[in-house]
Write a structure and sequence with these properties.
Alpha-Beta Plaits; Alpha-lytic protease prodomain-like; 10% strand; alpha+beta; four-stranded mixed beta sheet; 8 helices
Length: 295
C-alpha cells in the first residue's frame, strides 16, 4: 500500500475518533455550539472517505479508456468535499437559529469542554500531517482534506473560548451565536476548496514559479538545439503534464535530436516527480526567436 493511501486510511480513523469525542461532548453539555462542532466532524469523516476512494482511483494505471491516467479523480473528491462542507454549514445554521429562538444554559460545561479540547488536539496534529503530505506528494485530495481540517481546528478553538465566555457571563445567547459564526467559517472553507478544485478540472497551468523552473531546466539541458517555444503545462492531481516545441538544426539526425529530448525529459522528471513530458521537434526554419534560449 502506498504512503498516500495509508494517510487516507488514517484520516478516516482519526475522523471517526474525533466524531465520537465531539458527539459525547455535545451529549454531556447540550451546547448547540458543540453540536455544530460535532456536525462538522461528520463532514470530516465523509470527506476522508471520499478522498480515500478518489486516491484509490487516481492510483490506477492508465488504460485504453483513460490513456492519460485517472489523476483527476482527486479533484472530483475535493469538489465533493466542498459541497459537503456547505451542507454541514446549512445544518449548523438551522440548529443555531432554533437555539437562538429558545436559548438554554449549558450543562456540565467543563467536562464537555475538556472532551472537545482533546478532540481538537487530535485534529490539529493530523491536520499538520495532511497539509505536509498534500504539499510533498502534490495530492489535491490530501491538501483539501488538510485545509478542511484546519478550519475545524480553528472552529473548535473559537467554540471553546465562546462556550467558556457563555458559562462565565451566563449569557445563553452566546452559544447559538458561536454556532452561527462556525457555520460562516465553514462556508468560506468550502468555497476555497471548490475554487481550487475547479482550477484543476479546467486544466489550470502550473504556478509561474514552476513554469520558470521548467524554462531554466530546458535551457540548461538542450545543448545542440536552437531554441524551445510554446511551453505549456497543466496539473492533474499528482501528475504534471509538460509540452513544448524544440527547434533543432535542419541537418541534425533523428538520433541526435532524440538524445537532446531524453536529456531534457530526465531533468524535468527529477525536478517534478510524476511529470509527463511531450516534445515536438521542429527544423530550424520554424524558430520563433522569442522562446527559450538554449545555453
Amino acid at each position: 500500500m502506498s504512503k498516500v493511501l495509508k494517510i487516507a486510511y488514517g484520516s478516516v480513523a482519526v475522523g471517526l475518533a474525533v466524531l465520537a469525542l465531539k458527539t459525547f461532548a455535545w451529549w454531556v453539555t447540550g451546547s448547540v455550539a458543540l453540536l455544530s462542532d460535532a456536525l462538522e466532524s461528520i463532514v470530516n469523516v465523509a470527506t476522508a472517505l471520499a478522498a480515500l476512494v478518489a486516491l484509490r482511483i487516481s492510483a490506477m494505471p492508465a488504460d485504453a479508456d483513460h490513456p492519460y491516467g485517472h489523476h483527476k479523480a482527486e479533484y472530483f473528491s475535493a469538489v465533493l468535499e466542498g459541497v459537503l462542507i456547505v451542507v454541514a454549514a446549512i445544518l449548523i445554521l438551522r440548529e443555531a437559529w432554533d437555539a437562538w429562538q429558545a436559548p438554554a444554559l449549558i450543562q456540565a460545561p467543563w467536562q464537555g469542554l475538556g472532551i472537545n479540547l482533546l478532540a481538537g488536539v487530535i485534529n490539529a496534529v493530523w491536520c499538520l500531517v495532511l497539509l505536509r503530505a498534500g504539499r510533498q506528494m502534490r495530492s489535491p485530495a490530501l491538501a483539501a482534506d488538510g485545509k478542511h481540517l484546519l478550519t475545524d481546528v480553528v472552529s473548535s478553538l473559537g467554540v471553546t473560548v465562546g462556550v467558556v465566555a457563555a458559562v462565565l457571563t451566563g449569557w445563553a445567547w452566546l452559544d447559538p451565536l458561536l454556532a452561527a459564526l462556525v457555520a460562516v467559517n465553514i462556508l468560506w472553507s468550502g468555497w476555497d476548496v471548490v475554487r481550487h478544485s475547479i482550477g484543476g478540472l479546467m486544466d489550470e497551468s502550473a504556478p509561474e514559479g514552476e513554469i520558470e523552473q521548467m524554462r531554466t531546466l530546458i535551457s540548461a539541458n538542450a545543448e545542440g538545439a536552437v531554441e524551445a517555444h510554446d511551453l505549456r503545462s497543466r496539473r492533474a492531481g499528482r501528475a504534471l503534464f509538460v509540452e513544448f516545441h524544440l527547434v533543432v538544426p535542419g541537418e541534425m539526425t533523428v538520433e541526435a535530436a532524440h538524445e537532446i529530448c531524453d536529456r531534457i525529459e530526465s531533468a524535468v522528471h527529477v525536478a517534478f516527480e510524476g511529470s509527463r513530458v511531450t516534445i515536438h521537434v521542429e527544423p530550424e526554419h520554424k524558430a520563433k526567436h522569442s522562446g527559450i534560449v538554449v545555453l
